[in-house]
Amino acid sequence: MKSTVTDNWALAQELESIVGADAVCSWQDTDSFWQKRIESAIAPGTEIDCIVYPPTQEKLAGAIACISRNRRGVLPIGSGSKLDWGGLVKTEPSNPRDRSQVSEPPFLGNAEGLVVVSCDRINRLIDRAVGDLTVTVEAGMKFAELQQILATSGQFLPLDPAYPEQATIGGIIATADAGSLRQRYRGVRDLLLGITFVRSDGKIAKAGGRVVKNVAGYDLMKLLTGSYGTLGIISQVTMRVYPLPNASVTVILTGEAEALANTTQTLLSSALTPTAIDLLSKQLVAKLGLGKSLGLAVRFQSILESVEEQSSRLLEVGEKLGLKGITYIGNDESDLWQRLKSTIWSTAPDSTIICKIGTLPSESVNILAQLNLADGLIYGGSGLGILRFDSTTVETLLQVRQQCESHGGFLSILKAPADIKQHLDVWGYNGNGLSLMQKIKQQFDPENIFSPHRFLFP
Length: 458
Description:
By secondary structure, the protein is an alpha+beta fold. The protein has helices spanning about 5-20, 30-40, 55-70, 145-150, 170-175, 180-185, 220-225, 255-270, 280-285, 305-320, 330-345, 365-370, 395-405, 420, 435-445, and strands at about 25, 50, 75, 115-120, 125-130, 135-140, 155, 190-200, 205-210, 235-240, 240-245, 245-255, 275-280, 295-300, 325-330, 355-360, 375-380, 385-390, 410-415. The strands form 4 sheets. The protein has an 8-stranded antiparallel beta sheet with strand order 15-12-14-13-17-18-16-19, with helices on both faces. Strands 5-6-10-8-9 form a 5-stranded antiparallel beta sheet.
């Protein structure tokens, strides 16, 4: 994984003049932890020139302009906790083409070699408007650190991402990782009020603002959410925050699939206001020590009187349908959700495969009932969720994808060994928006330097 030594040295020297000598690290000098993490995200044989740690947004922009001039690819990273999600990043030898001979989308060629660009040092708190319920931070700030800062004013960012202790704000936005709290607070893009990012030409672009009521034309916040670092590098964001709830209670219902489906539909059409509605597979329920049947985890967070009343009403509904119910509060509740997250997101062993699943909400229980090989969780209100296999084959994954598609859904591979990702379409997208997405990619990144091959397009 080594580029030409002379070329690497010249590029490193140019980058050092922009970001500082202590902000550029050669691939050979990178510690083994980071080498392993980065290698899990790139195709075998892909050359890594160096790793760059710009300390400011302005120096990040300068570094990207330099990398672009030198025809290198860019792999943006934060903490690296979700770096291996999606397609394997790879670069190919340059092959310039005549614009007039290129069919849509008119990509001009691929970069030679790859530079890893880290936002780890771009991590400041920029502004905190407690009264307006907004906060502005740089993309490299850890999610857990931001929550600690907000908690001092009785506020929080209502997201429930994977790996919350390691995940950065920029990485959460780039992967649209909202988690269970999307039931009450919707997705990542709905919490974004403003965004700053670096384009492929090294220019800094901004959209939105620092107030809740904001009028904008082209909604770059929504466009960059879930873009997996393929349109630009997010450097700063303004987000909507909420007051911390006074009390929290979780109800677990277990039993037959039909009864759980009816309970979920009743809950969704009722006046109850849960913050989370998670349908759990039999395998996941068993690992949590909650029984051997399908499960439903419903969380209520508000004032004490409200959560007690709402949880009691849900238990009554479940009891009438023959479901077994149990209530968790206090430390027991916190421990339950921590165990659930650590089980579904565990990456041990190395053969672990984690997939994003989508289906019609009305079909969520049926899908989970059919999956006997995976730990599964589906958010009841949206039909989105996560499947985790300790190990499996390409053939099994394609069968599961077919099952999801037959129920109006999809299956995308987030994390998997390289040999799995090289033998199937990671995203499995069969909608009619691909051409539009490719045109957007060409507009934002005509030389295809940002995370080439990671997302739906080359």
